[in-house]
Design a protein that fits this description.
With about 250 residues, this protein is an all-alpha fold. It has nine helices and two strands. The longest helix has about 35 residues.
C-alpha cells in the first residue's frame, strides 16, 4: 500500500549511542512519522470513471482527517512514553545498568560528553512541546481515554498530567460504580493498538520504537466493525444500513 511507502525507517542504535541519544532518535522518528501521516492523501477510487459524467461529484467528508488526527494521538502516546522511559533509564543507568554507562567505547570522553549534552538539549526541546495528555488518558482509560481526549490545542505538562492521575486515583477509590479495564465495545480497535504498541510497551528496559505508524485505514476498519457489533447487540431487530454512494467522491 502506498501508505507504508511514506513511513520513515525506525532508528538503528549505534553501539556508541547513550540512552539520551537513543531517546532523541526515537522522538525524531515519531516526529517524522507524524509529518508523513499529515502529508498522506487518501486514495481515490478509479472505478468511478464509469459513473456518468453528468452527475455532480460529492466532496469527501472530513472523516479521513479525523482518522489522521486519531493516528496522530497514538503517535503522541508513543512519544510521551519514550520521554518518560528515557528519563527513567538514564537515572538508573549508573547503578542498575552498568553496561549502559560504558557503551561509548570508540569515542573519547570529551566527544561522548558533548554528544550527551547536545542530546539532552534536544530531549528538553521535545519534552517542552510534547502534549502528555494522550499518554495519560490512554493509560487511565485505554481506547476510551483517547476518544475522550480534549481537543484543546494547548499542551499539558507533566505536572498537570500527574495531578490528573492523582485525582483519578481518588475518584476511583471513592467511586461506587463498577469499573472494568476491559474494552467491551472497542475490542477490535483495542486489539489493533495492543499489537501496534506491543514492541515498545513490552520493552521497559530498552527504548524500542513502534515499527509501523498507525494506519487510518486499519483504524477505520476496526472502529467500523466494533460499532456494527455493538449496534447488533443493542438493536438486534434493527440492522444498521450502511449507505452506498452512487456518485463519485472527491477530495475537498
Amino acid at each position: 500500500m502506498a501508505f507504508n511507502l511514506h513511513a520513515p525507517r525506525p532508528p538503528q542504535p549505534h553501539e556508541d549511542d547513550n540512552l539520551v541519544t537513543e531517546g532523541v532518535q526515537a522522538l525524531s522518528y515519531y516526529e517524522n512519522m507524524k509529518k508523513t501521516l499529515a502529508s498522506f492523501n487518501t486514495p481515490t477510487d478509479n472505478t468511478s470513471d464509469t459513473v456518468a459524467t453528468s452527475l455532480q461529484p460529492y466532496q469527501r467528508s472530513h472523516a479521513p482527517d479525523v482518522l489522521k488526527d486519531f493516528a496522530s494521538l497514538i503517535i503522541d502516546v508513543c512519544a510521551g512514553y519514550v520521554i518518560f522511559q528515557t528519563h527513567a533509564l538514564t537515572a538508573s543507568a549508573p547503578t542498575d545498568n552498568p553496561s549502559a554507562s560504558s557503551a561509548v567505547t570508540t569515542l573519547t570522553s570529551e566527544a561522548a560528553l558533548q554528544i550527551r549534552q547536545e542530546s539532552t538539549k534536544k530531549l528538553q526541546t521535545y519534552q517542552g512541546k510534547q502534549n502528555f495528555q494522550p499518554l495519560v488518558y490512554f493509560l487511565v482509560g485505554g481506547v476510551r481515554g483517547l476518544f475522550l481526549l480534549s481537543k484543546n490545542a494547548q499542551t499539558a505538562s507533566v505536572s498537570e498530567c500527574m495531578s490528573f492521575m492523582q485525582a483519578m486515583a481518588v475518584i476511583h477509590e471513592h467511586s461506587q460504580v463498577d469499573q472494568t479495564p476491559e474494552e467491551k465495545i472497542w475490542s477490535n480497535l483495542s486489539a489493533y493498538l495492543v499489537e501496534l504498541l506491543r514492541p515498545s510497551f513490552q520493552s521497559p528496559g530498552k527504548i524500542v520504537p513502534i515499527q509501523q505508524k498507525p494506519d487510518p485505514h486499519h483504524l477505520a476498519k476496526a472502529i467500523t466493525i466494533d460499532f456494527l457489533n455493538h449496534w447488533k447487540i443493542q438493536q438486534p431487530t434493527s440492522p444498521f444500513l450502511i449507505p452506498e454512494a452512487t456518485q463519485q467522491i472527491t477530495e475537498k
